[in-house]
Write a structure and sequence with these properties.
heterodimer, A: 141 residues, five-stranded mixed beta sheet, 5 strands, B: 332 residues, alpha/beta, Methane Monooxygenase Hydroxylase, Chain G, domain 1, Pectate Lyase C-like, 25% strand, cytoplasm (chain B), TBCC_N (chain B), Tubulin-specific chaperone C isoform X1 (chain B), acetylation (chain B), tubulin binding (chain B)
């Protein structure tokens, strides 16, 4: 009985993913998360700290951590790296002036050893805005 | 008869003791074998680790003889090797003793720092400077993944944007009265950059508003649907409505604000807030188009990212005195 419970728990663990959502401030991380979760997005304020949401998808439990992107709290990002299965890097495609910042921050993250096992998704947000770069242009950056 | 029985008992006893002894012996033997196997594992690991470590050290020592252009590649391969070794240690920590793991980690750290030191020595990072600024072609710094460059990039990112800007807005103007009408800004990103002593009037409903490097400017704007993002502004007055406001690295800015969610400031000083009081023809219509709730204004709920103390208010911002408030804005 005890053994079976342990097995069951491990199985459950496998179906649980920890996903970290990062990016510069004003990229739209919280908005994405709330949209995914079917919540209202018109009351979102800049994230001071972080939000956690748990989503169910195809039998997987996704724990999504949405961490604020302000410059002064970027140094705390590393506290969230442990045991992360996936990293979503959100880019504001319309914010051309800070793309360089964005690139530097991402490269710095990628050097992080604790994230080496995680899968990376670069989320090109705000593509619908008139001044946005296309996904191809972003890839070159 | 009795004697016989007694003997039998004795023999049985002896036999029993004998088998017990044998078992004990076997157990001891097994134990010995087991610990030998364990020792073998540790020994094997130690050998392997030392071999790899020697390889890396050899590589590091050989760096001096290499040409500069070969160096980045070599550094790359060395750090890869160190990483592999780290993984090797991690995968073996089941049978390693705690003390050993600690020791191996220390060696690894030493290798890493040695590698970094050499890299700094042999491949000095290029410093970014504004030497050729007057030629109007600010050169890009060589993109580099090294950590120390980040600060430089942060502080200079605005001056070396290499992507042509297509947004509507104004740039590099001083001492002028600027105006944008409903058709130009509606649902568009508006960007104001490098303006000094200007008055900018934006009528209509922009999608977002970005402002940077503004000095002694007045910005009057109709309701912005989503966010306003401003940095490096000095001695300015903004009269704006939006869903969220982010103000960075600015000083002495007065903001007449309507914000439906939150406003934040970061690395700012001497920022004062007052309620939005801009009036012009059709502002009601613009509010409706923007989707902002006119009833909800959180202009006093300001989060300062440099002030996480909840008991004391942030010294970086305050509510503007009523007597200093401007009541009417010329919209001509």
């Amino acid at each position: 009985m005890g053994f079976l419970t342990v097995l069951k728990k491990m199985k459950q663990k496998e179906k649980e993913m920890r996903i970290l959502m990062l990016g510069l401030d004003n990229a739209g991380k919280t908005t994405i998360l709330k949209r995914f979760n079917g919540e209202k997005i018109d009351t979102i304020s800049p994230t001071l700290g972080f939000n956690i949401k748990t989503l169910e998808h195809r039998g997987y439990t996704l724990n999504i951590w949405d961490v604020g992107g302000q410059k002064s709290i970027r140094s705390y990002w590393r506290n969230y790296f442990e045991c992360t299965d996936g990293l979503i890097w959100v880019v504001d495609s319309a914010d051309r002036h800070r793309l360089e910042d964005c690139r530097v921050e991402l490269h710095q993250l990628l050097q992080e050893e604790r994230l080496s096992g995680a899968t990376l998704l670069v989320f090109a947000n705000k593509l619908d805005l008139p001044g946005a770069l296309s996904a191809e242009e972003l890839r070159d950056v | 008869m009795e004697v016989l029985e007694g003997r039998c008992d004795k023999i049985c006893d002896l036999l029993k003791r004998e088998t017990e002894r044998q078992l004990e012996l076997k157990k001891k033997q097994d134990d010995k074998n087991l610990s030998a196997a364990e020792n073998e594992k540790i020994e094997y690991f130690d050998n392997e680790f030392n071999k790899k470590r020697a390889g890396i050290e050899n590589d590091l020592n050989g760096l001096n003889n290499l040409e500069t252009k070969e160096l980045p590649e070599q550094f790359d391969s060395i750090s890869k090797k160190i990483l592999q070794l780290q993984k090797f240690v991690a995968s073996s920590n089941i049978f390693l003793r705690v003390y050993d793991i600690k020791r191996y980690q220390e060696i690894l750290n030493e290798l890493n720092s040695k590698c970094n030191r050499l890299e700094e020595q042999l491949l000095p990072k290029k410093k970014f400077s504004f030497k050729n600024r007057n030629k109007n072609t600010v050169k890009l710094p060589v993109p580099s993944d090294q950590k120390n460059v980040v600060d430089e990039v942060d502080s200079s990112s605005l001056s070396k944007c290499y992507i042509p800007v297509k947004n509507c807005g104004f740039e590099n103007i001083s001492n002028q009265n600027l105006k944008m009408d409903r058709e130009t800004v509606s649902k568009n990103d508006v960007r104001l950059q490098n303006l000094s002593k200007c008055t900018i009037k934006i009528f209509g409903n922009p999608s977002t508003l970005h402002m940077s490097k503004m000095v002694e400017c007045i910005v009057l704007s109709g309701p912005v649907s989503t966010s306003i993002f401003a940095n490096n502004c000095r001695n300015c007055t903004f009269v704006v409505a939006c869903q969220q406001l982010r103000l960075h690295s600015s000083q002495s800015v007065q903001i007449y604000l309507h914000v439906t969610s939150r406003a934040i400031i970061e690395d700012c000083k001497d920022i004062s807030f007052a309620p939005y009081n801009l009036k012009y023809n059709n502002i009601e219509q613009d509010f409706e188009d923007s989707g902002l709730n006119k009833e909800k204004n959180n202009w006093t709920a300001i989060d300062d990212f440099n002030w996480l103390n909840v008991d004391k208010p942030s010294p970086n911002w305050r509510v503007l005195d009523e007597k200093h408030m401007q009541k009417n804005w010329s919209t001509q």
